[in-house]
Amino acid sequence: PAEGRPVLTAHNLLARYDGFTALAGVDLTVHPAQVTAIVGPNGAGKSTLFHCLAGTLRPSSGRIHYGEQDITHLPAHARTRLGIARTFQQLAVFPTLTVAENVQVGAEQGHVQDPAAVERTLRLLGLDGPLRSAPAAALPTGTLRRAELARALAGTPRVLLLDEPAAGLDNAEVMALARVLRALAADGTALLVVEHDLDLVADLADVVHVMAAGRIIASGPPDHVLDTLGAEEPAP
Ligand code: ADP
Ligand code: MG
């Protein structure tokens, strides 16, 4: 149930690497206060779609709108400034900076300049204790993912793009992540989440899109879409 206008819209996105077509015409809308999930096998084009939305890859055709504004040709840093934050499947924190310094960088690059954002974000993700002063390079995966999420959140984005946020997390960490993401959506943030953990998707998502071979092949509420998937490829 999508209420109101989408905050992010992709129209007929095509993307190529050399001759290879990684996105073959993707339409997508992302709404405030909703979790939109993208699932699909490796190589489906999920990360490529994220790169196009975030501005790190130029689509070969198609348009991207942020509200009414056409952002198809805006560079990544300008989209971050407008309120589109992202995390990376391959984590991208600054290894020599501390957790708090990484979050500070995120705050400075972000949409809203809020002096309280760094502390608020560190607290939200449980990074306000001794971890705040730890160099990012020394952290285990779960903590690194939290630090990267904190960096993305510190600029108070309106849209948050998360590429496999649960990868490498243990069960307790996945549950903590789900709590944070639910709270963000409840506050009005639009979340677009690529995720392999279908239990997490079922738990969080308002809408699920299934990608395969560069296209969205099915869309709907998780109970409907994930049941269809389960029928095709039984869980291990
Ligand atoms: P997903 O995130 O769904 O696993 P990707 O978007 O990473 O898929 O990749 C989609 C397809 O594009 C894959 O076949 C992948 O091998 C190819 N691809 C991704 N990145 C590159 C690249 N930098 N150069 C060439 N091919 C790429
Ligand atoms: Mg990927």
TrEMBL record:
<feature type="domain" description="ABC transporter">
    <location>
        <begin position="8"/>
        <end position="235"/>
    </location>
</feature>
<protein>
    <submittedName>
        <fullName>ATP-binding cassette domain-containing protein</fullName>
    </submittedName>
</protein>
